[in-house]
Design goal:
The chain is about 35% helix and about 25% strand. It has about 270 residues and is α/β, with parallel strands linked by helices. The two termini are about 35 Å apart.
Length: about 270
C-alpha cells in the first residue's frame, strides 16, 4: 500500500500577490482553516502515514505553524475550558508527527522538487498532491490508491474541461477503460486547441513510481530552466510504464489564483452548510 505522500510547497505564490507577500499561500485561510489542512485531511483519510513537505527558507513559517507548541500551551492554560482550541492543537500535533521537511531554495520546477525527496521515499510508489488543487466531497487520493492496487500502475487525476480551454492545461492522450478511467498514452502541456488529443486535463494528484527519480536525474532542464515533472512522466510512458487516468467525482477548486481563492472560500462555506 501507498503510505508516503509528497506535497511541494516551495513555490513563491506570485499569482496570489499581495496576499502572499506576508503569508504563504498554503496557510491562507479558506473557510476558517489553512488551505493546506484540507490537503492533509485528504492524506490522513487515505491512509497516508508519512508526508514530505518541500519548502524553501523563505517559507519556514509553514514549519513554524506545526511547531508552535509554546503558543498553544499558553492559550490553553488561559482558556482551560475551550475545547475547540484543544482539539485544533491535538490535530496539529497529529499532523506534526507525520511530516518531514525537505528544502528547495532555487525555484527549478516540480521535477527538481520531487528529486529532493529521493533519500526519504522508501516505497515503490508514492502519492504527490499539488496544494493549489482542492478536491472536496470525495477523497480523490483514496480512490486513486484503490485504482493503483487494482492495476498495479501509476495513476494521475483528471477532469474534463471545455475544448476551448485546453490550452490552459496539461492534456492527456487517452485510451478509455470505463466511464471514469483511461490508459494514458501521452501528456501534452498546454496544446493549441487544434492539436489537443482530448479534453481530459491533468489535475494535481499523482501516484508515481520511485523509478521516476532516475529519470529526473538525467533530464535536461526545460522552459524557464526548470525540471518539469510532465517530461519525466512522458519518458516513463514511452518506456511502456503503465499510467491510468482517473476522472475524480469530487468538487474541484483551484486555489492558485486570487479569483480562484475567493471562489474556493465561497464554495467550501456553501458545502459546509
Amino acid at each position: 500500500m501507498i503510505k508516503q505522500a509528497i506535497i511541494p510547497l516551495a513555490g513563491l505564490g506570485t499569482r496570489l500577490l499581495p496576499l502572499t507577500s506576508v503569508i504563504p499561500k498554503e496557510l491562507l485561510p479558506i473557510n476558517g482553516k489553512p488551505g493546506l489542512e484540507y490537503i492533509l485531511d485528504e492524506c490522513l483519510n487515505a491512509g497516508i502515514k508519512e508526508i514530505i513537505f518541500i519548502i524553501s527558507d523563505k517559507k519556514k513559517i509553514i514549519k513554524k505553524y506545526f511547531y508552535n507548541d509554546s503558543f498553544f500551551k499558553r492559550i490553553i492554560k488561559k482558556k482551560k475550558n475551550d475545547n475547540i482550541i484543544k482539539s485544533k492543537y491535538l490535530k496539529i500535533k497529529k499532523f506534526k508527527k507525520m511530516i518531514k521537511f525537505v528544502y528547495q531554495n532555487s525555484p527549478r520546477g516540480t521535477g527538481d522538487a520531487i528529486l529532493k525527496c529521493e533519500r526519504i521515499v522508501k516505497s515503490k510508489y508514492f502519492l504527490m498532491l499539488l496544494p493549489d488543487d482542492l478536491i472536496m466531497k470525495k477523497n480523490c487520493s483514496l480512490d486513486m490508491i484503490k485504482l493503483h492496487k487494482k492495476y498495479k500502475s501509476s495513476v494521475i487525476a483528471s477532469k474534463k474541461v471545455s475544448k476551448n480551454d485546453v490550452s490552459r492545461w496539461g492534456i492527456f492522450k487517452v485510451k478509455k477503460i470505463d466511464r471514469r478511467n483511461f490508459f494514458i498514452k501521452d501528456v501534452i502541456e498546454k496544446p493549441k486547441i487544434k492539436n489537443a488529443p482530448s479534453n481530459y486535463a491533468v489535475i494535481g494528484r499523482y501516484i508515481l513510481p520511485s523509478k521516476i527519480f532516475s529519470i529526473l536525474k538525467k533530464q535536461r532542464a526545460g522552459k524557464n530552466n526548470e525540471i518539469h515533472i510532465t517530461d519525466a512522466i512522458r519518458t516513463l510512458i514511452k518506456d511502456e510504464n503503465k499510467f491510468i487516468g482517473h476522472i475524480f467525482s469530487g468538487k474541484y477548486l483551484d486555489c492558485g489564483t486570487l479569483k480562484g481563492y475567493i471562489n474556493s472560500s465561497k464554495e467550501i462555506s456553501r458545502l459546509s452548510l
